[in-house]
UniProtKB/TrEMBL annotation:
Entry binding sites for Zn(2+) 1: 95, 190, 223
GO MF terms held by the record: fructose-bisphosphate aldolase activity; zinc ion binding
Protein name: Fructose-bisphosphate aldolase
Residue sites binding Zn(2+) 2 per the record: 116, 146
Catalytic residue positions: 94
Segment forming the signal sequence: none
UniProt remark on cofactor binding: Binds 2 Zn(2+) ions per subunit. One is catalytic and the other provides a structural contribution.
Top EC class for this record: lyase
Domain of life: Bacteria
InterPro entries in alphabetical order: Aldolase_TIM, Class_II_FBP_aldolase, FBA_II, Fruc_bis_ald_class-2
Keywords: Lyase, Metal-binding, Zinc
Length: 326
């Protein structure tokens, strides 16, 4: 069965990004893999009055089932509406690999898609990105593309080397592809093991500023922007988990970026860490527990509370829309 995203209560990202650029905040794009993570995300955003992009990778879609994802998204929208919140909610494909996947996601109710041609050369990236944009726009679905390469590993995304976006290429890329937003590489990195402790990760804000001069007002996206909070790394280790020490992107660096052209910031790893820490704490303190509600509920609460703080400290999007009753 095919779905129109509007019938699911979803919106595309066009008006979201316009408002974000005008008011100096970024829209949270949080990845989810199950119902509990989805609830943590929408409840956090509804209670803070923040718009939200529910982000789903191809791997997460396969895991949940492509028939289930649109119904889950519809349920999550209705959940926040029942709480009295009017926040806009988009369902976005993260790192779409080809046009066939793009088409299938649009058929199954996605309101926004990403075509990732960043591993191709410049001309091939333009060709595949334009192809995706031309198709998606027939259905009023917004399209994100990527220029530059982020190093790291997360879900289906693997890259050994980091290639910064070249500001001199962005104007031509945007004009020739017709995409609605552009993911750039300015120092963020995919996955939990971004930077070693003791290092001083910094975003290339000079590159961002030059890109903004080249394409003023155009929505910019940052991928790989988790902070890898020590709190959750320590909790996971305390209750039996194994993680290599690492640090992520400092919140103040990201907040500075949101005050310019950055309209969307992707966060996945932090949610995984918070969720896993919540589960491990239950099992570590109560090893007899076997009721999924008793360990998934605390995991959801941990993830929700962390994202609420992230909305304030990084995105600056709190209060943009009517808040839900807690």
């Amino acid at each position: 069965m095919k779905y129109n995203y509007k019938d699911l209560g979803l919106v595309n990202t066009r008006e979201m990004f316009k408002a974000a650029n005008e008011k100096g905040y970024a829209v949270p794009a949080f990845n989810f893999n199950n119902m509990e993570q989805g609830m943590a995300i929408v409840e956090a955003c509804a209670e803070m009055g923040s718009p939200v992009i529910l982000q789903c990778s191809s791997g997460a879609r396969k895991y949940m089932g492509k028939e289930i994802v649109p119904m889950l998204a519809k349920g999550l929208v209705e959940h926040v509406r029942a709480k009295g919140s009017d926040i806009p909610v988009a369902l976005h494909l993260d790192h779409g690999s080809d046009l066939e996947l793009i088409k299938d996601c649009i058929d199954y109710g996605f309101s926004s898609v990403m075509i990732d041609g960043s591993h191709y050369d410049f001309e091939k990236n333009i060709i595949v990105s334009k192809e995706a944009a031309d198709y998606a726009h027939k259905f009023d679905v917004t399209v994100e593309a990527e220029l530059g390469v982020l190093a790291g590993v997360e879900d289906d995304v693997v890259a050994d080397e980091h290639v910064f976006t070249q500001p001199e290429e962005v104007e031509e890329f945007v004009s020739r592809t017709g995409v609605d937003s552009l993911a750039i590489a300015i120092g963020t990195s995919h996955g939990a093991h971004k930077f070693k402790p003791g290092s001083d990760p910094k975003l290339k804000l000079d590159i961002l500023a030059e890109i903004e001069r080249k394409i003023p007002g155009f929505p910019i996206v940052l991928h790989g922007s988790s902070a890898v909070p020590a709190k959750y790394v320590d909790m996971i280790k305390e209750f039996g988990g194994e993680l290599t020490d690492a640090i992520g992107i400092p919140d103040d660096q990201l907040r500075g970026a949101t005050k310019s052209a950055v309209s969307k910031i992707n966060v996945d790893t932090d949610g995984r860490l918070a969720f896993t820490a919540g589960i491990r704490k239950v099992f570590g303190t109560n090893p007899k527990e076997f009721d999924p509600r008793k360990y998934l509920g605390p995991a959801m609460k941990e993830m929700k509370e962390y994202y609420q703080s992230k909305i304030v400290d990084v995105f600056g999007s709190e209060g943009a829309y009517k808040k839900a009753a807690k």
